[in-house]
User: Fold this.
Amino acid sequence: MRVLLINPPVARMIRTVLPAGVEKNRGSSPPLGLLYIASMLRNRGVADVSVLDAQAEGLLLPQIRQRIRELRPSLAGITAMTFTLPDVLDCASAVKDLFPEVPVVVGGPHAGIYPRLTLEHHPAIDFVLRGESEASFCLLVQALGGRGSLDAVPGLTYRRSDGIRENAPGEPAEDLDSLPLPARDLLDPGLYTSVLSGASRVTTMITGRGCPYRCTFCYRPPWDMRYRARSAPGVVAEMAACADMGIGEIFFYDDTFNLRRSRVIDICREVLRQGLRVGWDARCRVDLLDAELLGWMRRAGCRRLHLGVETGSPRQMESCRKGIRLDQAREAFDLARLAGIDTLAYFMLGFPGETEEEMTETIRFALSLPARYAQFAVVLPFPGTELYASEQRGAPPGWDPWKRFAAHPDRDFHPPRARGPVSDRRLESILRRAYRVYYRRPSYLLRSLAGVRSWQELEQKGRVGLRILFGGNAR
Assistant:
């Protein structure tokens, strides 16, 4: 069976929580979920698999149609984020227009939240896979090839003559070391860059899955709340494989890389033992960092930490249940600076009931930190989050804009904002102001220029900076 896995474009992506200049130029990351599925299909010998990353290649629908026509798949799989749903449906329709008998399966966070509704309203989609899908995708391929039953595929939602059936969810992978490494060889590694990195090739990696924390703004299905981690030798083996491909920097895409301190140190020790020279970034919690741990990380190649602070308002920090304190955040940024590790601070504006004064507190707190970068975004109540559920409880009967969008996606759809005293227009103005006051400081500009490693990095960061400062389409 010829399987084509598609990462859809963002040609019709609905408006996001970031300013356009930041969104457009921040780079692209490989579709790890699809690459894990591809490697599992190859490892089990059940399919000849190709991956089409329309997003990284900048392909539009006519070009995607041509690639589908050339590859002639017998099964197509598409990953679906809520923001890219219009593009997902365009890709599914393209497959059906060209090859009406080819089944289309959709997975990813959006499909997992609205599996039944997806099939009820979008006839170009034949199957939805919920949850982790490496093993279940293989079972689906085998069932469609006559070597199994659709009823036995965990996490599968599909149409039958008597209606839509939802199979029981599958168990998440326990032994992550048993999974084959993502099939990065199926894509050009030169497609992937980051505005933060001076490396010409970057990639992402997963060293652990799941997160036990309960932030109100984060979507976390019940099966993904238990943390599962890969071993240090397995992590470093993948890092070495990436280095062999000419990749200069790796972003550990775990929700919380430093959840187990001893494992992080084991990874660093293994990197140093092997003499591996590749830079890396990681998402970490500020309350789980200390000077010794940061020292190990720096010596092992850590260049940058992505640290979620979210707010500078103590009231909003407690309300969103982030589980950290502002003094812990300040100490983590200070310790990272002393260790020689760059930091990116994440903040959000527009929490439920948040006042303009509290948003100003957040901006002031961001300015007070020794962070190399800061990202500000508008709080959006995403489907499946506790924040969205709380917004529904206080809304008029029948209020469910995300459900309506899932059934009838429209590019002009405006995602709902959390209820509060600040208007949407004013909130967007505050968001733009946050970027301007953060990045236009003379001290910040001088420090940034001193850290640039190449002309390519200077050009890339300069383009984003002009967009942030002047709100135009700098080229």
The longest strand covers residues 302-310. The first helix runs from residue 20 to 25.
